[in-house]
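Dear colleagues,

As part of the handover before I leave the project, I'm documenting each prediction I ran so the next person doesn't have to rerun anything. This entry is a single chain, and its sequence is reproduced below.
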Amino acid sequence: MQKIRLLAIETSCDETGIAIIEFEKKIVKKQEVISKEFKVIKNLLISQIDIHKDYGGVYPNLAKREHIKNIPILLEQALGKDDNFKNINYIAVTYGPGLSPALWTGIEAAKTISKEYNIPVLPINHMEGHIFSSLLTAKNKKGDIYEIITPSLPSIALLISGGHTELIYMNNFFKYKKVGHTLDDAVGEAFDKVARSIGLSYPGGPEISKKAESGRREIVALREELRLPRPMLHSKDLNFSFSGLKTSVINKIEKYKLTEEEKNLFCMEFENAVTDVLIKKTREALYLYNCNSLIVGGGVSANNHIRKSLTEMCKNDDIDIYLSDKKNSTDNALMIAAIAFAKVSNSHPALTGEKVEDIKAEPNLKL
C-alpha cells in the first residue's frame, strides 16, 4: 500500500487556491488500484475581492501581482517552512480557461516545483473542475474524506459563473460536448453589471440575491413598467443571451426613480428572469439528449433562488441533480485536486520533463 499526495494550484481569476489531498494506491494482481476516496490534507484560499472592489471587477494584472505574492504564502502554510515537496507525488494546475496573466502565475509555480523536485504535472481544465466539484460527496462528519459520485449517465452539466454560461452533454467521464452557451454576457457577468447599475458593490451576485430575497417578502407588487424580458426563452436552440436583459435593466434604472422597496422588487425580477431562462434551456437540453441527471457547477450555482428552482425542476421531472456545497462552488483548489484524482484513478498520464515546459495558459480553453 502506498500513500499518494497530490498538490493542486488554482489561479484562474482572483482566487489563489492551494490544496493537498492524499489517497492510496496498491497493486492487485499486477494492476494498480487507486482507492475510491481521498483525504483533504489542506485546502487553502486567499480571495482578492476586497482588492478588486474599487474596479467593479477583476483587474488582470493586479490579480497576477496578488497571485505571485499569495502562492508562496499558501505553499508555506500547506507544506511548512521547509517546503517539504518530497512527499508530493503529483502537481495539478489550472491552465485554462481564465485570465491569462493569472493563469501563468500558477503554471510557472507548478513548472518550477516540478523541475526542482521531478514531480509529474497534470494540467487541468478549470470548467471540468467545476463539474467534478459538484460530484464530490463527503464521507465523514469532519468533511475531510471525499468520494467522487458517478452520476446517472448521460448527463447535462449546467456551468454558470462570472465568465461562463454553458450546457455540456456528458456521456462518460472526460467526454464532453457543448450543446449550448451564452452569445454575449455570462450570467455572473450580468449579475455584476446589473448590481453596479443599481449602485451595489462587487461582486454583484450576492448583493442582488440579498435584495431579491427581501423583495420576495414584500407585500406590494412590482410596477408593470419595471417587468423585464426573458431573452431567447423561445429560441429554437440551447443558447443564452443576457446582454439585452442587462441593457433593459440599465434603461429602466435611468428612466424610473426607484425607491429602496422597488429596488428589492427589481432585483427579484432580474433574478427571476435569469432563473426562468436557465430553467427553460436546461429542461430542453435534458429532454433533447434523453438525460436523467443534471450537474450544476460554477460560482453562480451558490445563488439560493437558482439552486432551489433547479432542484424543484429536477424533482418534478424525476431528474437526479448534483450540486456542489456552496463553499466549493466558487473557484478553489479542491475542485482542481478532485478532477486530478479522477484522472489519476483512470490512468490518465501526467506530464514529465520537457512536456511540463510545454504547458501554457489557454484563457479560452474549451471542454
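Residues 155-323 form a domain with the Nucleotidyltransferase; domain 5 fold (CATH 3.30.420.40). The two ends are 34 Å apart (CA to CA).

All the best with the project,
I.
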